[in-house]
Amino acid sequence: MVIGRVADAVTRGIGDVTASVTDVFDPTVRLGVTGLSRAGKTVFITSLVANLMDRGRMSAFTPSSRIETAFLQPQPDDTVPRFDFERHLAALTSREPRWPDGTRAVSELRLSLKIQPRGLLGGMRGARVVHLDIVDYPGEWLLDLGLIGKSYSDWSERALRRLREWGATSYLAEMESADPTARLSEPQAQALAAAYTAALREARAAGAYDLTPGRFLLPGDLEGSPVLTFAPLPPGETPRGSLRREMERRFEAYKSKVVLPFFREHFSRLDRQVVLLDVLGAIRRGPRAVEEMRAAIADILEAFKPGALNWLLGLLGAKRVDRVLFAATKADHLHHTQHARLTDILDAMVSDARRRADFAGARTEVLALAALRATVEETRVHNGETLPVVRGRLLETGREAALYPGELPPDASHILTPALEGAEEWLGADYDIMDFAPAPLTLRPNEGPPFIRLDRAAEFLLADRL
Q1: Which of 48, 337, 343, 438 has the most neighbouring CB atoms within 10 Å?
Q2: pLDDT tens across 58-109, in order?
Q3: What Pfam families does the database record attribute to this sequence (predicted)?
Q4: Maximum distance among all alpha carbons in the chain?
Q5: 2-137+272-371+443-465 has which CATH code?
């Protein structure tokens, strides 16, 4: 087993040496984009690429003036689906715009930027090309990396406890009707797996985030396979050929054949990482959802193992993410006067994770942004009081509406403390966050879609490498 892992590392190292030599002449930045459900990964990538190609709005992105052109090229990984940029952009910019479909599997897109270097030597050398490879993947899959060190019994105990905590008890009745020591019945295994998947969806709707295995919610091309046909069972005997023995075997197969290959083939090759979080959505669901998101963020960053590496370790395939951006999305659902408070809340939520990353040598940043601005800001007088509101087209009805969602507290602890203490609801506060549809756009030449702080995100993630 150990020899096999060493051999595998050496094989990957040879490939990485070749890639590193190539990068001397044709530099590449691999940017991972992930986030938990409904965080806006697809919109972020689509708007980022569109605004890097047409940079009229990218005032805070310092390399913008030196980019002669940006163009899409075939991606380097032939076995990974291409991120469907053109279709997603068409959905956002059509006469009747709509949000594109969310991330359901790994996809990739290569954007090549032709850049004029600075200074006298830059003028003598001429323009150079830097490739930006964007890798999109569900955050739910990233949480699975925590399963690698767990046994089936450990995972089962935790999974059953969490279902009870979130009131997703429908699976428990299905489980109690089964005899784990009886001989495996495939229809029964399928029924248990389906019931457990339904319970995970139920818990997610209630505000849970740390739900494993992540492929149960987003199976991709593995849907219906035996590696996704298992479920947690209480501890007990595991006779050969029994239901519990087979569930344990499939859990181990999931780790070795799904989780580890994902880490090796995609995640471990990233240079930079964006973690998108719908913090406003968690606040709307209540204190438990905020604490759940905070804990999930900590688990996610633990998987990154971020930090600066010397060149030799890099050649041996031990690449680590050296910059991580945490972004609270949908900032356009709030008036700009509250954006600093939203940033402070996210900063407090990720403070432990940021300290670990900084200690390891990585750089981290926290932003409140909107990759596509769907609202405009106004002030309205209500009961003699002037309120800062946002106005947009409601997703459910399509009608225009102005929203004052309530003020976020000036002290982030007023959100995090009730969450940590397990409060059921916010004391004396009500946060009314609506879902807005994308607004019809009229784009001028050399302009990408409108956004909030997307150029600042690009500055942190890419400027030093361009």
Answers
A1: 48
A2: 999 999 999 999 999 999 999 999 999 999 999 999 999 999 988 778 899 9
A3: DUF463 (PF04317)
A4: 77
A5: 3.40.50
